[in-house]
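Deliverable D2.4 — example input (structure tokens):
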């Protein structure tokens, strides 16, 4: 800006802003200046008074966060009438400083947010990656510890190479949908390959937002490899147990809340049903009427978890014929719930052998 005469001289000779923390409002500050002989023109303070080396003074208030934080001033050692142009220029300069203060405050808040994010990310046990279309913007130390790569190596390497080959198409599809503002799962499980070639499982959370005018994806991941390995071992154990049950000659059944939830093939062969036809039905349906009450009493006796003595019952086959079976049961816990585990042996062959012996 260009100011004529004494205004330019004074502008060069003194500081433009005096910053002071204060809780007084703009109106109070203007009143205080008016009391010492000032005059107000619009929102610019125009004060003329006789003082040492100051015969004319022009002030514009600087506000920030609804507080008066300073004044932008022009003064002259000789009497001077400030022109409209000078008043407008000073007002615009003060407005510019107000905007600059707001921008500086915003930058400071942004820097504080970035610092908090970095401190949180770098102390987190979870993997954190900030990605844009061009590549990785930020990778936290947990990702380096997990993969075994250095930060520089990861920044120079395509992160796609870290993904397990069988999962890459799925992740590419999710990322492409997010960058196109289309719906994609926000949580999923995937595998990565470490520097040593080890496969690790991650529980991923992903969200999109705007960063620097461009779309970005924030990805966090927890290492769930131990849990997945435990689940896989459990599945293998269950598969081995199911194979064993399927090849037993004795019938095996599991009952929860009075209903059958599992029956092996042998139980189906004994009674003439497929294993699935037992599911959801009460065991009493397959007992002859005379044995039902006795069977209920035996179940009540097993509430303490002891293994009950084997007892003989008469059961009804699908074709309506009767079959003698020997059943032993025990109360167990299955998937966190009380259950009744029973083993049933067909006594048909034994009865035939006994009859042959009697005849002999």
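Example output (designed residues):
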């Amino acid at each position: 800006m260009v100011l004529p005469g004494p205004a330019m001289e004074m502008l060069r000779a003194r500081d433009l802003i005096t910053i002071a923390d204060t809780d007084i409002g703009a109106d109070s500050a203007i009143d205080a200046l008016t009391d010492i002989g000032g005059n107000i023109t619009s929102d610019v303070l125009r004060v003329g008074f006789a003082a040492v080396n100051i015969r004319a003074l022009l002030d514009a208030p600087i506000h920030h966060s609804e507080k008066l934080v300073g004044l932008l001033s022009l003064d002259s050692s000789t009497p001077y009438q400030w022109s409209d142009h000078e008043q407008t220029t000073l007002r615009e300069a003060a407005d510019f400083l107000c905007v600059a203060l707001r921008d500086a405050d915003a930058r400071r808040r942004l820097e504080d947010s970035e610092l908090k994010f970095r401190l949180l990310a770098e102390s987190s046990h979870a993997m954190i990656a900030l990605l844009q279309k061009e590549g990785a913007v930020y990778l936290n130390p947990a990702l380096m510890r997990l993969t075994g790569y250095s930060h520089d190596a990861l920044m120079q390497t395509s992160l796609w190479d870290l993904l397990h080959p069988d999962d890459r198409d799925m992740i590419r599809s999710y990322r492409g949908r997010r960058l196109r503002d289309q719906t994609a799962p926000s949580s999923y499980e995937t595998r990565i390959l470490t520097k040593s070639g080890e496969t690790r499982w991650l529980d991923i959370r992903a969200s999109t937002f705007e960063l620097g005018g461009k779309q970005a994806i924030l990805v966090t991941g927890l290492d769930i490899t131990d849990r997945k390995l435990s689940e896989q071992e459990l599945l293998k154990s269950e598969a081995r147990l199911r194979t064993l049950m399927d090849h037993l000659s004795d019938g095996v059944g599991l009952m929860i809340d009075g209903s059958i939830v599992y029956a092996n093939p042998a139980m189906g062969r004994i009674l003439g049903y497929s294993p699935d036809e037992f599911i959801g039905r009460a065991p009493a349906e397959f007992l002859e009427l005379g044995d039902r009450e006795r069977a209920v009493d035996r179940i009540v006796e097993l509430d303490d978890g002891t293994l009950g003595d084997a007892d003989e019952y008469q059961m009804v086959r699908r074709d309506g014929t009767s079959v003698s079976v020997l059943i032993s049961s025990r109360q167990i816990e299955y998937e966190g719930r009380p259950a009744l585990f029973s083993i049933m042996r067909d006594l048909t062959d034994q009865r035939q052998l006994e009859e042959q012996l009697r005849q002999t």
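The first helix runs from residue 5 to 13.
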